[in-house]
Design a protein that fits this description.
The structure holds two protein chains of two kinds. Chain A is mostly helical. Chain A has 25 helices and four strands. Chain B is built from 15 helices and nine strands. Chain B is globular, with a radius of gyration of 24 Å. In chain B, helix 2 crosses helix 4 and helix 10 runs antiparallel to helix 11. Classes of the chains: A mainly alpha, B alpha+beta.
Chain lengths: 495, 415
C-alpha cells in the first residue's frame, strides 16, 4: 500500500498558532468546560446574558418557523453581530479577541444558571446553544478549527495503516454509499482520507444514516464527518454540566441580587423574548397580531372562555382537540396569520417533539385556516355554539366557564383572571346570580363592564348596550377601548 | 397450530408460577450479581391481569418478593421495563424529575405479521414451520451484525410464545444507551421501510452505488434464503399477484416488458424459473448501464423479501416494556423459552413445551420429600423446561463474569 500522508500533517502549522498563545482565550470556539472565575459586575452579568438570550430566542423561533439551515445560519450570524456576540477569527489581530470571547463565555454561564432549573428549559437551552455552536463551528477557518480540535480533548484515535488496509473495501463502500458527490472514484478517495476511531455511541447521527463503517463497536469516522464527533461531544458535555448545575444551584450561597435576574431571564425565554426586547417592530397599530403578542392580549382583553383555554395551554403545554379548535379559530379571527399561528402552537406545545407536531398538529392548524382538506373558511365559534355544541368531557378545557364551571371554581377563576383589572369579590354575588338563572352571556357582559369601568358604565354592555355574543367581539371591543384610552391619555398630556 | 388447544386457566397459571417459573434465574439475569442491586430493585415490572387490567410500576427487593407477588396476582403475563432512577413502586412519592429511565437492555422484537407481504403459506397470527424460516434468517443476520458491527456479546434470544422472537442485549454499554443512541442503532439496522402503499421498500443507497458494507456482508446469506424460501417453499412469484409485484420492483424498460409478456403467456413457470432463467439470463446479457441498474434492483429485491423486519418502536425507547422470558402465551399455552441462535434452524415453535404438558410431567415424577414442603424453586429441573432454563443460566454466568472482570479493573465503579 502506498504511503499515506499522516493526518497530523494538517495539524502541523503549530508555529503560526503559537503567536496567539498570549490570549486568554486561545480559540474562537469554546466548549465552556471552565466557568469564568474573575469578578463580574452585576451589569455585565445581566447584559451579557440578555444579549445572548436574544440570539438564542431567535434561533428557537427559526426552528419554529422551519427556516432552512442556510437561512438560519445567516439570521443567527446577523443576530450575533447585532448583539455583540460576533466572534472574530484568531487571525483578526486588530479586534479585541479576548474581550469578545469573554463576553461569550460569561453570557453562556449566566444562562446556564437560568436554564438548568427544569428538564424542559435544559432541553431547549441545549438545542439552541448547540445550534449557535454549530453555526460558529461551520464559519470557522481551518486554522482555528485545527487549534480547537487539539485544545479540547476529543479522545479519538487515528485508524492505523493496517486497519485501513484490512477494511479498505468496506471503507470505500461506506464512503461511496453515503457521499453525495457523484463520480468520485472511491478507491483514491479512501487512500487520501484520514479516519478517526471512536465508540459508535459518540456519533449516533452518522450511525443512523449509515455514513460510517462499524467494527466491534468502533466507528471509523472519515475526516470530513468529524464535525459530528465535535457537536455530539458539545451536546453531551453541556447536558451533563446542566444537570450538575441544577443539583448544585439550591446549595449556592445565594446573593439576593441574582435570583431575580435569573427568574427574569428564564421567563423571557419561555414567553419568546424576541419581539418584546428585541427590535420593536410596530405591529401594535395594524391588525396583524403576532405569536409573541398573544400573552399580553390574553391578559388584558380575553373573555373568560379564551382566558381559561390560554391559561390551560400555558400550564399543560397542550390542549385537547375541541380546545384547540375553539381557541385556534378565535386566534385566527383575532388576526394571527397562518405562519404566526403555527409558530404560536409550536412554541406552546413545548413538550412535543418536532416530528409529532408536524405529523399531528400542523395539518389541523392549516386545515382551520382553509389550507387543507375541503379548504373551507371556518368561522370562529360564537357564544351560542360554545354554550350548546360539543359539550366538554371530563378532561376538556373548552366551553364557556360561566356555564361549564362549578360555581366555586367559576368564582375562583374570575378573581384570578380579572382582579388585576378591577374585579373584586364584592362583584361576585351579582354575577353568580345571573349565572344561576342561566344568563351566561349577561354574566360575561357584566364582567366586561366591570373590567372596563373607566370607559363603560353599567348597562352599556360592550358598547351601545350590546351584550356579548361572540368571544371575538369581546376581545375586539376591549382592544378598541384600550386604543381610545391611549389616545385620550395622550390628549390630556398634550393639553 | 392445533385448533383445539384448551385455554390456559388461572389454576394452571398459578401452578406454573408456584412450581415451575425460574424466578431465581430471571432475577440473576436482570441483576447481573447475586446480591440485589439497583438493576433489580429499581426495575419496573408490569402485570397483565385477566380482564385487561394492567398494573404498572411494580418493583421488588429480591426474587422471593417478585415470586410472592406474581403468585398473589396470578397475572396472565408480566413485562419487564427499565431501571429507573428511583424505585418504580415509589413513583407517586418522588418528584417527577427524579423519576426517569436510566438503564435498560437493548431489545428487539421481530414479529411474523410484518412478513405478510412476502410469505404465502400463512398470514396474520398464524405461523408454520415454513415461515418460521424467515425468523430464523432474521436471527442469523441480526445476531451476526450486532456482534460484529456493534461488538455486543451478551445476547439472549427468546421465543415470544406465538409468532415472533425477542432479543435482549445485556452488555454494559448496551444497557446504558440513551434513547437517541437506540434510535440511531435501529436506523442502522432498518432496511425495509414504507407502508402498504409503497412498492419499493428498500432505499439504502443512492442510484446504483454499492450497498453499505453492513448490508453487503449479509447479501450472500440472504441470497441463499431467497432461493430456498422466496423461490422455493414460499413460491412468491408463482401467482399473477406475486409476479406483478416483482415486475413493479424491476426498472421499467425492455427487459421488464419482455418478462411481462413471457409470464402472461406462460403463467405456470415456477418462481425459480422466472427468477433464475427468465430474469437471470436477460440480466446476464445486459450492457453496462442497464446491467448496473438491474444489479442494484435485484439486490434490493432480495433484501425486500428476506432482510429482518424489525418492530422499531420497541427498540427505540428505554421505557418500552417487553414480555418476560418464560411467560406463557395465553392463547397457545406455550412458554416463551430462550433459544440458542446457533441451532435456530432446527428450532420448531410447535415443539416448545406447553404449560399443561409441563404440569403433567411434574405429576408423573414421584414427589420427593423436599418438593412437597412449600417452595418449589427447582421443580423445572424435572421437566422438559430444563434445557431452556439452562440456556438462561449459562447466559447469566457470562454476565456475572463480566461484572467480576469490571470490578477487578475499576474497584470503585457504581452503576
Amino acid at each position: 500500500m502506498r504511503q499515506k500522508p499522516k493526518a497530523s500533517g494538517s495539524f502541523t502549522n503549530a508555529g503560526s498558532v503559537e503567536q496567539h498563545s498570549n490570549l486568554k482565550y486561545p480559540t474562537r470556539l469554546n466548549f465552556y468546560d471552565r466557568p469564568p472565575i474573575e469578578d463580574i459586575t452585576l451589569e455585565e452579568f445581566e447584559t451579557c446574558a440578555l444579549d445572548r438570550l436574544r440570539v438564542l430566542a431567535e434561533i428557537e423561533s427559526s426552528f419554529a418557523r422551519n427556516r432552512p439551515w442556510d437561512e438560519l445560519k445567516k439570521v443567527t450570524s446577523t443576530q450575533c453581530e447585532n448583539h455583540g456576540l460576533k466572534l472574530h477569527a484568531s487571525t483578526a489581530y486588530t479586534e479585541d479577541l479576548d474581550g469578545q470571547r469573554r463576553r461569550d463565555h460569561v453570557g453562556h454561564f449566566v444562562l446556564r444558571l437560568a436554564f438548568c432549573r427544569s428538564e424542559e428549559l435544559r432541553r431547549r437551552f441545549v438545542k439552541a446553544e448547540l445550534t449557535l455552536f454549530r453555526v460558529r463551528y461551520e464559519e470557522d477557518g481551518i486554522v482555528d478549527k485545527d487549534v480547537f480540535h487539539r485544545s479540547s480533548k476529543f479522545d479519538w484515535e487515528e485508524a492505523s495503516d493496517e486497519e485501513l488496509a484490512q477494511y479498505k473495501s468496506q471503507l470505500a463502500a461506506a464512503a461511496a454509499s453515503s457521499s453525495h458527490t457523484h463520480a468520485t472514484s472511491s478507491t483514491s478517495h479512501t487512500a487520501e482520507e484520514t479516519y478517526y476511531k471512536v465508540r459508535w455511541t459518540r456519533v449516533p447521527d452518522l450511525v443512523e444514516k449509515r455514513k460510517v463503517f462499524l467494527k466491534h463497536g468502533m466507528a471509523f469516522v472519515p475526516r470530513r464527518e468529524i464535525s459530528s464527533i465535535v457537536l455530539q461531544e458539545f451536546q453531551t458535555r453541556l447536558e451533563k454540566a446542566l444537570e450538575m448545575t441544577a443539583k448544585a444551584l439550591p446549595r449556592l450561597d445565594e446573593d439576593t441580587r441574582i435570583i431575580p435576574i435569573l427568574d427574569n431571564l428564564s421567563q423571557g425565554f419561555l414567553a419568546g423574548v424576541s419581539s418584546e426586547w428585541g427590535n420593536t417592530t410596530s405591529s401594535g397599530d395594524g391588525s396583524e397580531v403576532t405569536a409573541d403578542m398573544v400573552d399580553d392580549i390574553a391578559r388584558k382583553h380575553y373573555p373568560a372562555c379564551m382566558r381559561n383555554l390560554h391559561d390551560c395551554l400555558r400550564r399543560d403545554r397542550h390542549l385537547k382537540h375541541f380546545g384547540r379548535l375553539q381557541y385556534g379559530l378565535f386566534l385566527k379571527v383575532l388576526g394571527l396569520s397562518i405562519d404566526e399561528a403555527i409558530l404560536f402552537w409550536r412554541k406552546s406545545f413545548s413538550n412535543i417533539q418536532d416530528d409529532k407536531f408536524n405529523k399531528e398538529y400542523r395539518y389541523n392548524i392549516r386545515h382551520s385556516f382553509g389550507l387543507e382538506g375541503k379548504r373551507a373558511n371556518y368561522a370562529a365559534k360564537s357564544c351560542q355554539q360554545i354554550l350548546l355544541a360539543d359539550q366538554p368531557g371530563t378532561s376538556d378545557n373548552h366551553g364557556c366557564p360561566y356555564r361549564h364551571f362549578a360555581p366555586e371554581n367559576l368564582q375562583t377563576a374570575l378573581l384570578s383572571m380579572y382582579s388585576s383589572q378591577g374585579l373584586t369579590s364584592a362583584d361576585l354575588p351579582e354575577i353568580m346570580h345571573t349565572v344561576k338563572n342561566g344568563h351566561y352571556h349577561v354574566a360575561c357582559t357584566r364582567v366586561f363592564e366591570i373590567t372596563h369601568s373607566r370607559q363603560v358604565s353599567k348597562g352599556e354592555g360592550i358598547g351601545g348596550g350590546e351584550s356579548v355574543t361572540h368571544p371575538n367581539q369581546y376581545v375586539t371591543k376591549s382592544r378598541e377601548l384600550e386604543v381610545k384610552a391611549q389616545v385620550k391619555d395622550e390628549d390630556i398630556v398634550m393639553g | 397450530m392445533s385448533g383445539n388447544t384448551p385455554s390456559v386457566t388461572p389454576e394452571v397459571m398459578l401452578a406454573f408460577y408456584r412450581r415451575l417459573y425460574p424466578f431465581k434465574s430471571i432475577f440473576s439475569w436482570l441483576n447481573h450479581e447475586h446480591t440485589p442491586t439497583r438493576l433489580f430493585t429499581h426495575r419496573e415490572f408490569a402485570f397483565t391481569l385477566p380482564g385487561d387490567v394492567y398494573l404498572r410500576y411494580n418493583s421488588f427487593n429480591n426474587a422471593d418478593e417478585l415470586k410472592k407477588q406474581v403468585c398473589n396476582l396470578n397475572p396472565t403475563r408480566f413485562e419487564i421495563g427499565p431501571v429507573y432512577s428511583a424505585r418504580p413502586k415509589d413513583k407517586k412519592t418522588v418528584r417527577p424529575a427524579a423519576f426517569s429511565p436510566q438503564l435498560r437492555e437493548l431489545v428487539f422484537d421481530i414479529d411474523m405479521t410484518d412478513y405478510d407481504p412476502v410469505r404465502t403459506c400463512c398470514s396474520g397470527a398464524d405461523i408454520c414451520r415454513l415461515c418460521w424460516k424467515f425468523i430464523a434468517a432474521a436471527v442469523h443476520v441480526l445476531d451476526k451484525s450486532i456482534r460484529d458491527q456493534f461488538g455486543y456479546q451478551r445476547l439472549l434470544w427468546v421465543y415470544s410464545g406465538r409468532r415472533g422472537i425477542h432479543l435482549w442485549i445485556s452488555d454494559k454499554e448496551a444497557m446504558e444507551l440513551t434513547d437517541e443512541q437506540r434510535k440511531a442503532l435501529v436506523g442502522w439496522m432498518t432496511v425495509i421501510q414504507g407502508g402498504k402503499e409503497m412498492h419499493k421498500k428498500v432505499n439504502v443507497r443512492q442510484g446504483t452505488k454499492p450497498l453499505p458494507p453492513s448490508i453487503q456482508s449479509s447479501m450472500r446469506f440472504l441470497g441463499e434464503v431467497f432461493t430456498n424460501l422466496t423461490l422455493g417453499t414460499q413460491k412468491c412469484f408463482q401467482k399473477r399477484e406475486g409476479w406483478e409485484e416483482l415486475l413493479r420492483l424491476l426498472p421499467s424498460g425492455a427487459t421488464t416488458s419482455a418478462l411481462r409478456t413471457q409470464w402472461d403467456e406462460g403463467p405456470q413457470r415456477t418462481s425459480a424459473e422466472k427468477w433464475n432463467t427468465d430474469l437471470g439470463e436477460r440480466y446476464a446479457a445486459l450492457g453496462p448501464p442497464e446491467h448496473d441498474i438491474m444489479k442494484a434492483a435485484i439486490e434490493d429485491i432480495i433484501l425486500q423479501y428476506t432482510y429482518p423486519r424489525l418492530d422499531a418502536e420497541v427498540s427505540k425507547h428505554r421505557n418500552h416494556l417487553l414480555k418476560a422470558p418464560f411467560c406463557v402465551h395465553p392463547k397457545t399455552g406455550r412458554v416463551c423459552v430462550p433459544v440458542d441462535p446457533s441451532s435456530i434452524d432446527s428450532f420448531d415453535p410447535e415443539k416448545v413445551p406447553k404449560v399443561m404438558d409441563l404440569l403433567d410431567e411434574l405429576d408423573m415424577v414421584p414427589p420427593t420429600a423436599a418438593g412437597e414442603t412449600g417452595e418449589h424453586h427447582s421443580d423445572w429441573e424435572r421437566t422438559s423446561l430444563k434445557p431452556y432454563v439452562d440456556i438462561l443460566d449459562k447466559h447469566v454466568l457470562s454476565l456475572m463474569e463480566d461484572v467480576r472482570q469490571r470490578k477487578k479493573q475499576e474497584p470503585n465503579m457504581n452503576w
